[in-house]
Amino acid sequence: xxTQLIYRSRxxxxxxxxxxxxxxxxxxxxxxxxxxxxxxxxxxxxxxxVLEGTPAAVDGLYRTVCQDPRHTQIVLLLRDPIPTSxxxxxxxxxxxxxxxxxxxxxxGGPNWSGSxxxxxHRSHRSERIIEAFVCGRWRDARPALAWSPNxxxxxxxxxxxxxxxxxxxxxxxxxxxxxxxxPRSKCITSFEALLRGPAGESPQSVLGAVGAAQLHAxxxxxxxxxxALASALDLDCVLSVNLLPMSLVANSGAVEFLLQQCARHRWxxxxxxxxxxxxxxxxxxxxxxxxxxMLRASGIQVAIDDFGAGHAGLSLLADFQPDKLKIDKRIIQxxxxxxxxxxxxxxxxxxxxxxxxxxxAEGVESAEDWSWLQSAGVDRFQGFLFARPRLQGVAPITWPxxxxxxxxxxxxxxxxLAA
Length: 419
Ligand code: C2E
Ligand code: MN
Ligand code: MN
Prior knowledge:
This protein is α/β, with parallel strands linked by helices and 419 residues long. The protein contains 15 helices and 16 strands. The strands form 3 sheets. The protein has a 9-stranded mixed β-sheet. Helix 6 (215-232) packs parallel to helix 8. The longest helix has 18 residues, at 17-34. The two termini are 48 Å apart. Bound molecules: ligand C2E and manganese (II) ion (2 copies).
């Protein structure tokens, strides 16, 4: 079986044409031994390489590239089985795309743009990815940001020093709070309240232990405790709570209940946000939309949670635009090295920018993913990289050093910068 793999990388050094010729020579002889074919494109800054061979040979070469300090910003664009080699004739030839119309070096062969017009390239994704690269995609306009973390130390007078506070005894449930942060301004924009059992059990186990008949009432009523907690901690930002869409619909007067709890705990309604998962929302769309209109009429904001994890994300967004959209961690995690994830995030950022929707990246665990996301126009983050959820309290936050932002240049070509 043959595997085809395409990656993009950024070179850490400049190459003269003699350097490039030498590189191609070395690569061609190594790849001949491994029986790997392919193509190398270079634009003076970025490489795009196609590798074709046995899965072991191709994956081994890719691993070597990933560990090679001369490559940075390595992004996997394609890895698929193929019936026959598509680039066998190319061996490992080089195309300098600074001269897009030029012949592929060393082949004396077909003119690249001429070949494109002939249409043969349209037959396979690999050639269309090459075409996208030749036409200017897969270049990042900004340097990667360095993480250089600074762990926050809460001062004695900080209201988040919960050890000094007497917290209200919960009526229904406990909550862990996790911040959503805006690293550029070192601000906490909101806290998400995550349901917990008495000993910190997961939301699934708490909700699972509630009988089906009581589920939606419990889900709604437990939010009284989340609001009471945020108020007791005197949090100076938005409080996000999770609700099943049916908890808004099956409980008559659900929105009134939330407003009463806000009033009771002196929490402004416009600092409450309800997170709904898209999958559940779409299955009860009319009822969901009715409840959302009532929330909005009372100033409570609405977020789509776990965007991209469900089935109908885009069709839901076509009919309903939330205040906030939280991109699911399965899309976020690994984004810095995954071409597919990058293309998805870029289009979500652009969509949300145009429609005034705030984007949050969820489940950010690695500095590389944060750096890529920040450069792509995502400004708000939730994840273990910054802070873990803390039961009935708030954990200190780890911030990037402020230096990385100083070196930033103009926005990316999309211009998409969510506020
Ligand atoms: P969610 O609303 O997407 O909440 C975020 C989940 O991701 C939380 O899990 C949080 O602990 C976890 N998380 C945060 N940062 C990271 C990270 O960097 N890496 C990883 N791997 N995970 C991270 P948790 O607390 O177990 O909650 C799971 C889900 O349970 C929530 O997902 C939400 O859908 C649901 N849930 C939580 N509280 C409630 C509630 O009061 N009512 C209802 N109906 N559902 C709730
Ligand atoms: Mn949530
Ligand atoms: Mn989520």
